[in-house]
UniProtKB/TrEMBL annotation:
Its EC number is 2.7.7.7. NCBIfam families: holA. SUPFAM superfamilies: P-loop containing nucleoside triphosphate hydrolases (SSF52540), post-AAA+ oligomerization domain-like (SSF48019). This is DNA polymerase III subunit delta. InterPro entries: DNA_pol3_clamp-load_cplx_C, DNA_pol3_delta-like_C, DNA_pol3_delta_N, DNA_polIII_delta, P-loop_NTPase. Residues 213-320 form the DNA polymerase III delta subunit-like C-terminal domain. Gene3D superfamilies: 1.10.8.60, 1.20.272.10, P-loop containing nucleotide triphosphate hydrolases. It comes from Sphingobacterium paramultivorum. Residues 19-138 form the DNA polymerase III delta N-terminal domain. One of its GO terms (cellular component) is DNA polymerase III complex. The gene is holA.
């Protein structure tokens, strides 16, 4: 999702009287709430006209009574309820809030941070939220969208990053955007703004090996470079905490799913957009498609499905360990 228009409105002091920030991706919720907390009031006003509550510590009547008050030193008062999913969302308490929302205090900005799940859209109060304020659905990014998100994040801050470094971070850190953004912020503190962030910078500052990661394993498999593939696997076996088997299987499966999709593209000129990858990587996908025809790609995906089951203890001898499962998977992909 793109929250930049919302952040732009906040920066331009165009506020909504009520925000329902809800969904699985806490990063988007926190970013919007933090922007409101930082922008609406200055430091002197915050002591009088800003309240931060936590859902588990308050009830709805406290929220509503606070919202009905008028500001003391500024044009607005700001009330932010963090962990709002911990509030008691029952019919009587929701009715109390609904009555307030239908007759809003115009000088109050009320923010609900409803995390780790979606607010029930079937509830009457959800429709009132939509009508009277702004509802944000903070959905988790799919894995193939993390790379472009990283690129945009870095660009918005004025830095540049090499596509390979972007994909290495995405493959290693996954789609936890709070974790990714924290690592990117630390990375940018240590790389001059005039310099493009490289794989070497990522290795030095985030601790991801530029030579031994799933990103490089996928490249080795695409090239059918068995020696490099087994070198990386040996590294994974020696560092299991950083390279859990389930994560490795999942990322290879994502990679070969894109190879299969590439096979079925009629217009290869739009391959980068359709696959959700940087154009820099298209030659690699073209090579992978030559090395793995459609039938072989289907076979690889079946191998990955079987390996995923084995990693969970299904159809595997009791004495079979993660190293053997991983090496068998690589052998079957390459042969």
């Amino acid at each position: 999702m793109n929250i930049n228009p919302i952040l732009s409105d906040i920066k331009n002091r165009s506020f909504k009287p009520v925000y329902l920030l809800q969904g699985e991706e806490s990063y988007f919720i926190d970013t919007i709430a933090d922007a409101l907390e930082a922008t609406v009031l200055n430091d002197a006003q915050k002591g009088f006209d800003q309240s931060i509550f936590y859902g588990k510590d308050i009830d709805m009547s406290t929220v509503v009574n606070a919202a009905k008050r008028y500001p003391m030193l500024s044009d607005y008062q700001v009330i932010i309820i963090k962990e709002a999913q911990e509030l008691k969302w029952k019919s009587d308490t929701e009715e109390l809030l609904t009555k307030y929302l239908e007759h809003l205090t115009p000088t109050t900005i009320l923010v609900f941070c409803f995390k780790h799940g979606k607010f029930d859209k079937r509830k009457k109060i959800y429709k009132v939220f939509e009508k009277k304020g702004l509802v944000v659905d903070a959905a988790k990014l799919y894995d193939d969208k993390v790379g472009p998100w990283i690129g945009a994040y870095v660009k918005d801050t004025g830095w540049r990053i090499h596509p390979q470094a972007t994909m290495m971070i995405a493959d290693y850190l996954g789609n936890d955007l709070s974790k990714v953004s924290n690592e990117l912020d630390k990375l940018m503190l240590n790389v001059p703004k005039s310099q493009e962030i490289s794989m070497e910078d990522v290795e030095r500052n985030i601790g991801i090996s530029k030579d031994y990661n799933v990103f490089e394993l996928n490249t080795a498999l695409a090239k059918r470079n068995a020696l490099k593939a087994y070198q990386i696997v040996d590294y994974f076996v020696a560092n299991p905490k950083n390279n859990p088997l389930v994560m490795v299987i999942g990322q290879i499966a994502t990679y070969f799913t894109k190879i299969l999709k590439y096979h079925y593209l009629i217009d290869k000129s739009v391959a980068a957009k359709e696959l959700g990858v940087h154009p820099f990587f298209l030659k690699e996908y073209e090579l992978a498609a030559r090395n793995y025809n459609r039938r072989k790609t289907f076979d690889v995906l079946n191998v990955l499905k079987e390996t995923d089951l084995k990693s969970k203890g299904v159809n595997v001898p009791s004495n079979f360990n993660s190293e053997e499962i991983l090496k068998e998977m690589i052998y079957r992909i390459l042969n």
